[in-house]
Fold this sequence. Notes:
Blueprint: H1 2-10, H2 16-31, E1 41-46, H3 48-51, H4 57-71, E2 76-81, E3 95-98, E4 108-112, E5 117-120, H5 123-139, H6 143-157
Parallel strand pairs: 1-2
Antiparallel strand pairs: 3-4, 4-5
Helix pairs in contact: 1-2, 4-6
Amino acid sequence: DYTRAVVQRGLPTATAGEVERRVELRMRRRELLDRVDAPHLWAVVDESVLLRVLGSPAVMRRQLEHLIEMAERPHVIVQVVPLDVTNASAPAIPVTYLRFGGVELPDVVYLEHIKSANFLEDRDETEEYRVVLDRLADEALNPRESLALLRDTMERRYSVPD
C-alpha cells in the first residue's frame, strides 16, 4: 500500500495499469532481501519521510512496521537523519549506490527520476556520491538509535486507536 501511494504521488497521471506494473517491480526488487544469499542493504533516510503521511496513517504504520522488521535483519542497516541535523548533506534526489563486493565490476550509482533513471559508472562520478552518502551516514543516528526512533515514531504518530 505504501509503495502504491508513493508511485501514485510521483506519477499522478499514470494509468492504474502503469501504477500496478511499477508496484509489482518494486515488490519483486524487495524480495531480494528475503533470499538466503540476500545482498546487504544500507539505507539512510530523512526523518521527514517518516512523518509525511502517504496513503493513510494505517498505511504509514504498516510501512514503519516493515522498516523495523527489515532493520532487525543482520544484512540490513537503517539509519535515520533526524530533523534537528541542520546541515545534512543529503542529495536532492534519491540515490542508490551499488557496490559489487568480490566481483570485478565498477560501483554504480542509480538515480531514479519521475519518468526515467540514470546509471553512473564513471569512477569520479560514483566517488563523489560515495563521499556524500558517507557524510550523510555520519550525520545520521546510529542503527540502534534509528531503530528506536522508528519504533517511537510508529507508536507516537501512528498508534492504533483503542
